[in-house]
Amino acid sequence: MVLSILQGFVVLEGLDGAGTTTQMRLLCERLDREGRAHAGTFEPTEGPVGRLIRSILARRVMALPLTVAMLFAADRHQHLAGPDGVIERANRGELVVSDRYLFSSLAYQSIECGFKRVLDLNEGFPLPELLVFLDTPVAVSQARLDRRTHRELYDGAGFQARVREGYLQAIEHFEGSGMRVLVLDGNRPADEIHEAVWTETARLPIHKV
């Protein structure tokens, strides 16, 4: 079970179309205005493994579910521990904000691979200091996805409903870990969600090394 907390690490999670990317952008813009050292990042990354994952999600490359879960874990390890990665940035006092992290794997890949198998693949990865889950209704997320030019591998409404249950299971699994969890209604206006995210983020201490 992953129990270590990485101070200065904030993660935004939610269904496809939940609004995590928008909220990461708004939070980073606010941190910039406040003069707080920070970094915005995301998974899959733009590294070689992350690009392969994106090709799979776009249906340009075929891969077995367990292969995909392993690729996500490999990309996450590089994201965390690689040069100028999450751990290095957090340790030098930056607030690192990530659009998706291991909770996405537990929500998405567990559907076909099983929760324990995916949890084991991510063993040893630290938890964020703050997890924000945008609990956006499936119908709302699907309507947002309909405005995009293409659909990805996991975008269907039935699959996304199961993903939501996976997120709730993951959050429950880590109760008592010390990670702060903020669950927000993702159907609220983006500026209202941002204010709630900012209020919680501003409470985090500034960690200096």
Number of helical elements: 10
Largest sheet: 5 strands, parallel
CATH class value: Alpha Beta
The succession of helices and strands, N to C, reads: EHEHHHEHHHEHHEH
Write the layout of secondary structure elements.
Layout: E1 5-14, H1 20-33, E2 38-42, H2 48-57, H3 65-81, H4 86-91, E3 95-99, H5 102-108, H6 110-113, H7 115-121, E4 127-135, H8 138-145, H9 157-173, E5 180-185, H10 190-202
Report on this model:
The protein has helices at residues 20-33, 48-57, 65-81, 86-91, 102-108, 110-113, 115-121, 138-145, 157-173, 190-202; strands at residues 5-14, 38-42, 95-99, 127-135, 180-185. It contains 10 helices and 5 strands; from the N terminus they run βαβαααβαααβααβα. 35% of the residues are buried. The chain is globular, with a radius of gyration of 16 Å. Helix 1 packs across helix 10 (190-202), helix 2 packs antiparallel against helix 3 (65-81) and helix 5 crosses helix 9. It has a single domain, classed as 3-Layer(aba) Sandwich (Rossmann fold). Helices cover 49% and strands 17% of the residues. The protein starts with a strand and ends in a 7-residue tail after the last helix. It is of the alpha/beta class. Strands 2-3-1-4-5 form a 5-stranded parallel beta sheet, sandwiched between helices.
Descriptive terms for the model:
alpha/beta, 209 residues, Rossmann fold, 5 strands, five-stranded parallel beta sheet, 10 helices
What's the short story on this structure?
This protein has 209 residues and is α/β, with parallel strands linked by helices. Helix content is 49%, strand content 17%. It has one domain: 3-Layer(aba) Sandwich (Rossmann fold).
